[in-house]
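Sequence design from tokenized structure. All designs in this work follow the same two-part layout: the structure record, then the generated sequence. An example of the structure record is given first.
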């Protein structure tokens, strides 16, 4: 691939104060899907933190490039950080329950440690993927560290990466836990205990108060704060039988709220129930699949949705009409750029 080839965006996946994550391809290489962490639109007040996170990510990606299950760094320029696309679906959707998956996930961590890299953000199930072939993958290296020495800090951070993997295993495949893993979960390292008692409180105060971030992802969405009142307002109408709210990237800046509403009402009548200032997009549906599936539709993550549907073909009857009528057309707009 030519380093001079421009990046053609197709879908915005995530946006926060420090970057925007967009999938697409280089011009002339449509079959090679890539991901760009855009940094050229970061507000001036966020640039110091964004630059710090970008440096950490670039340094880590350069080291882990070539490890199966981690992204390859393609290039870095004024636009942002371009890396290979990691095919797969997040753990909260995949819910892997095979020994092979967790064995492969441990292999990734082992390969990273051999290169003196720790990830440091594996408590989020969104940062773990299950690939279409059932293998594991890790993404989002913004908080990763490249260690000069294999000292105590390196060992502690590597241990925490492994412990967070075991916690995911406990959540999705508890019967596969080994005695050693049960023991690991029963005790936290001293830095973790200190973080939970002090640092996490400060982190939550900043991210939830200043940025309105939720626990799971720093998407800047308003669902955690406004979701209950929005749902209650919609459910007051007797024609509304269910509501599911999902975040999605707005065409310009910020994150919006996408409401999927189980109802017989038409689009215009449904739209009249709540102003756009509260809910950006609102779509009537016949049935509501689970929230994680609707989030993939809201965010135009249709490749990942297809993986889910291949594993659960019974969902197609419910999801196909929703996909056909989806209202977030960001990917179609970007395709025309």
């Amino acid at each position: 691939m030519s380093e001079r080839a421009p990046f053609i965006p197709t879908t915005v996946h995530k946006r926060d104060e420090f970057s925007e994550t967009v999938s697409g391809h280089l011009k002339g290489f449509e079959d090679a899907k890539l991901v760009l962490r855009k940094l050229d639109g970061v507000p001036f007040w966020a640039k110091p933190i964004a630059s710090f996170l970008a440096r950490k990510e670039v340094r880590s990606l350069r080291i882990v490039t070539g490890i199966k299950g981690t992204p390859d760094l393609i290039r870095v320029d004024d636009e942002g950080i371009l890396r290979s696309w990691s095919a797969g679906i997040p753990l909260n959707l995949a819910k892997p329950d095979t020994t092979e998956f967790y064995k492969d996930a441990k292999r990734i961590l082992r390969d990273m440690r051999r290169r003196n890299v720790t990830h440091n953000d594996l408590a989020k199930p969104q940062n773990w993927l299950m690939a279409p072939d059932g293998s594991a993958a890790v993404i989002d290296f913004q908080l990763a560290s490249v260690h000069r020495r294999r000292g105590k800090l390196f060992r502690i951070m590597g241990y925490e990466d492994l412990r967070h993997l075991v916690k995911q295993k406990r959540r999705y495949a508890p019967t596969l836990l080994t005695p050693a893993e049960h023991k690991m979960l029963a005790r936290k390292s001293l830095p973790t205990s200190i973080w939970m008692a002090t640092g996490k409180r400060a982190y939550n105060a900043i991210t939830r108060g200043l940025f309105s971030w939720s626990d799971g992802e720093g998407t800047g969405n308003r669902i955690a704060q406004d979701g209950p009142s929005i749902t209650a307002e919609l459910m007051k109408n007797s024609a509304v039988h269910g509501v599911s709210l999902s975040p999605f990237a707005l065409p310009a800046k910020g994150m919006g709220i996408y409401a999927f509403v189980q109802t017989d009402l038409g689009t215009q009548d449904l739209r009249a129930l709540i102003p756009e200032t509260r809910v950006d997009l609102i779509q009537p549906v016949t049935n509501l699949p689970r929230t994680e599936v609707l989030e993939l539709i809201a965010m135009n993550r249709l490749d990942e949705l297809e993986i889910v549907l291949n594993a659960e073909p019974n969902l197609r009857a419910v999801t196909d009409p929703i996909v056909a009528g989806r209202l977030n057309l960001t990917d179609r707009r970007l395709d025309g750029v």
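The radius of gyration is 21 Å. We note this feature because it recurs in several other targets discussed in the main text.
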